[in-house]
Design brief:
Layout (H helix, E strand, L loop, with lengths): L1 E6 L3 H16 L3 E2 L8 E6 L4 H20 L4 E6 L3 H8 L4 E2 L2 H8 L11 E5 L1 E2 L10 H4 L4 E2 L2 H13 L4 E5 L7 E2 L2 E2 H9 L6 E5 L8 H9 L6 E3 L7 H6 L6 H14 L4 E8 L6 H14 L3 E6 L17 H24 L5 E10 L2 E6 L4 E5 L9 E9 L2 E6 L10
Helix pairs in contact: 7-8, 11-12
The structure holds iron/sulfur cluster.
The site of iron/sulfur cluster has 10 residues, from helix 5.
Length: about 400
């Protein structure tokens, strides 16, 4: 019997899918590369935006067609499923697996890693905060943290197998605590594992970002100088309505502290435009924040109602074209700030980790989490190499491979 998994959404869903694959392979299933070769299709869905949910409804005609030629085909739906969609979607899938139970059990499963030389390690799942727009506390439940020993064993095994980039995942990754080990301590323990590898993590919550964490990031040479620090809005009233539990002044202060200790940090953020009641003046505060902070990257989304959340009770009164326009305005600012940041790398020799090969070009990530494209044969995938940055674009860098570079030239 062959299975095929379709995954939507964040890195946590990708990690869940890797662990689901292990379970099916342990009971004898083999992976089908093409959907029409599978006897079992598992869909791992995301409900963060309505457009993500619409994709699942879009798959149903395809599955029905496949069932006309393969009447034994079974379909399973899992992932972040809202109550409202669950009932409707249950009519079109053979089984629904609850991610709340699955993700807790999943933390204990050794996954079938699918992104060599990069590996995701979930360190926690669920969330105890109730940001008013967010479905996670409803779909994944309250926060559960894995034992630090298990995380360390998983990381050591990965490094022994040649993995070079370890991503620690959690919905609110920096609130991790297991017994007396908090997130900074866990990072330090991982950093002490011998070997040549990088550590990244996502996504931290600004309200839990401690001085201890900044210190550890500064001290530990394997921790990437990259942070996605979600701000969501630059306006205090909107932040309050979002239940984010910080003021924009505190966020600014945090960025200042981080940049003081790690001046070359790559900083990205998440922003929601058109939140219920967001006025033009309130949006202007977000515009000003983006201009001031000068992010390297931002994931900007138009607000969409998520049934069952607190924000769903608020009037979704920013018209769609206005949301689109606000997204465009922020994207224009971002294009410029990202380009300015990327230009600072021109002429610099950086170490990169090649991840993919596409039409003679390698797509790699630098320690600073910059996407770098350069011409090279395929066989360097998974090996750290030094390249010279020769050009900068808003969304990445172009490089040239080098042969011998003195170590002192590396940044
Ligand atoms: S902290 Fe993150 S996961 Fe938790 S409710 Fe807020 S947005 Fe959702």
């Amino acid at each position: 019997m062959k299975y095929h998994i379709i995954t939507y959404g964040c890195q946590m869903n990708c990690s869940d899918s890797e662990r689901i694959a292990t379970v099916f392979e342990k009971v004898g299933y083999k992976k089908a590369l093409k959907i029409d070769r599978a006897g079992l299709i598992i869909v791992n869905m995301c409900s963060v935006r309505q457009s993500a949910v619409d994709r699942i409804y879009g798959l149903i005609p395809k599955f029905n067609k496949l069932k006309t030629t393969n009447y034994k085909l079974q379909t399973i739906l899992t992932g972040c499923i809202l109550k409202k969609d669950r009932k409707k979607l249950a009519q079109h899938f053979d089984y629904i697996l609850d991610i709340k139970d699955l993700s807790k059990a999943n933390l204990e499963i050794e996954p079938r890693y699918s992104c060599f030389p990069l590996a995701y390690i979930p360190i926690s799942t669920g969330c105890n905060y109730f940001c008013s727009y967010c479905v996670i506390p409803y779909t994944r439940g309250s926060e559960v943290c894995r034992a630090a020993e298990d995380i360390l064993i998983e990381a050591k095994n990965l490094i022994d197998k040649g993995y070079k980039e370890i991503w620690l995942l959690g919905q609110n990754v920096n609130s991790y605590r297991n017994k007396n080990i908090n997130f900074p301590k866990l990072l330090k323990m991982l950093n002490n594992i011998p070997g040549n590898f990088w550590i990244r993590f996502t996504s931290p919550q600004p309200r839990d970002f401690s001085n201890e964490l900044i210190e550890i990031m500064t001290e530990c040479e394997k921790i990437s100088p990259y942070l996605n620090l979600p701000v969501q809005s630059g306006d205090n009233e909107i932040l309050k309505k979002m239940n984010r539990n910080y003021k924009i002044e505190e966020y600014r202060e945090l960025v200042k502290k981080i940049r003081k200790k790690i001046p070359d940090i790559t900083l990205s953020t998440d922003v929601i435009v058109g939140f219920p009641g967001e006025t033009k003046t309130q949006f202007k505060n977000t515009v000003n924040l983006l201009k001031e902070i000068k992010y390297d990257m931002a994931y900007i989304s138009q607000y969409s109602v998520r049934p069952g959340t607190a924000a769903a009770k608020m009037e979704d009164n920013v018209p769609k074209p206005e949301k689109k326009e606000r997204e465009r305005i922020l994207t224009e600012i971002l294009k410029q700030t990202a380009l300015d940041k990327n230009k600072t790398f021109i002429g610099v020799i950086v170490e990169v980790l090649p991840l993919k090969w596409n039409d003679d070009f390698i797509i790699a990530k630098s320690f600073h989490y910059k996407t770098v494209k350069f011409k090279s044969p395929k066989d360097i995938i998974g090996k750290f190499v030094k390249i010279k940055v020769i050009n900068a674009l808003s969304w990445g860098l172009q490089g040239q491979s080098l042969k011998k570079v003195p170590i002192s030239n590396l940044i």
